[in-house]
Amino acid sequence: MWISVTLQAEADKAEALSDALMEAGALSVSIEDADAGTEAERPQFGEPGHLPTALWDHSRVIALFDGAADPAELGAMLAEAARAAGFDAVPPFSTETVAEQNWVQLTQSQFDPIRITDRLWIVPSWHEAPDADAINIELDPGMAFGTGSHPTTRLCLEWLCEVVTPGCSVLDYGCGSGILGIAAAKLGAGAVLGIDIDEKAVEAARDNAARNHAAVRLQHSAVPVGDTFDLVVANILTNPLCVLAPAISARVAPGGRVALSGVLETQAAQVVEAWAPHIALHVGAAHEGWIRLEGRRPGP
Ligand SMILES: C[S@@+](CC[C@H](N)C(=O)[O-])C[C@H]1O[C@@H](n2cnc3c(N)ncnc32)[C@H](O)[C@@H]1O
């Protein structure tokens, strides 16, 4: 028997806490994006005015301890780890006992293969692809957002399935795990570029693209993007999508198309208005209260 302790921590402190927990005697530690839970567990995502980095501001640090440890001993280990990681006190946590043989299953069973369309599946590495003939993107949950389980990602993936044509160029603005760019490349796009403001996301996306043998160029968003693209997809949040309207729209080639996600139904008008001087947008699809806005730059 093991004791699994799930601690809530700010993402930028999660790694330090993870290291400190190992030092303090944990048998294993994993870090999960706290926003990868249920809708109710994701209060920040999509709240008007919330900064984009808040998407993975909160992490769950899950540490496994020997079940023989008594509560006082466990409390002392947690306190030592919290102190070593620079916390004033032990962050909020919950514990549960886990039968040894169920541990791996417990963690992995939360992430089953996700069918986006008949053509496209997202498959965790420990699963067999349910349809070997489909495009199967291998992605495991990690620190970068984008496993296909969130409706905003799904809306973008469905759009890519509809609009990618052989050899077209695609910009994935706010690539996170790289899931959208990888999907675009696998669907037949030519030049695919993914950019992100978070260097860790760029690194994760690089790893994921390599693992999927997907030709996707990935770079930090501070690096200027000179090109324009046939397709531009951005799953960020309402406020940054409004602020970034001139920058993102400038990357859409004449005749090219754009899809924006990360917008709640109630926020559609705000984004449409911000984009009106650049590209006219309309609601293309909706899923669980989230919408996808789409537009086309006039041109050839
Ligand atoms: C919701 S995640 C989307 C990840 C992935 N594209 C998907 O659809 O699942 C938003 C991503 O946008 C990035 N981001 C936020 N603001 C940005 C900005 N101003 N420029 C570039 N990337 C940004 C975040 O770091 C994050 O990786």
Automatic annotation (TrEMBL):
The keyword Methyltransferase applies. InterPro entries: Ribosomal_L11_MeTrfase_PrmA (IPR050078), Ribosomal_PrmA_MeTrfase (IPR004498), SAM-dependent_MTases_sf (IPR029063). It comes from the Bacteria. Keywords: Cytoplasm, Methyltransferase, Ribonucleoprotein, Ribosomal protein, S-adenosyl-L-methionine, Transferase. It is found in: Cytoplasm. The keyword Ribonucleoprotein applies. Transmembrane segments: none annotated. Its main location: cytoplasm. One of its GO terms (biological process) is methylation. GO terms for cellular component: cytosol; ribosome. S-adenosyl-L-methionine binds at residues 153, 174, 196, 235. GO terms for molecular function: protein-lysine N-methyltransferase activity. Its EC number is 2.1.1.-. It catalyses: L-lysyl-[protein] + 3 S-adenosyl-L-methionine = N(6),N(6),N(6)-trimethyl-L-lysyl-[protein] + 3 S-adenosyl-L-homocysteine + 3 H(+). Belongs to the methyltransferase superfamily. PrmA family. Methylates ribosomal protein L11. This is Ribosomal protein L11 methyltransferase.
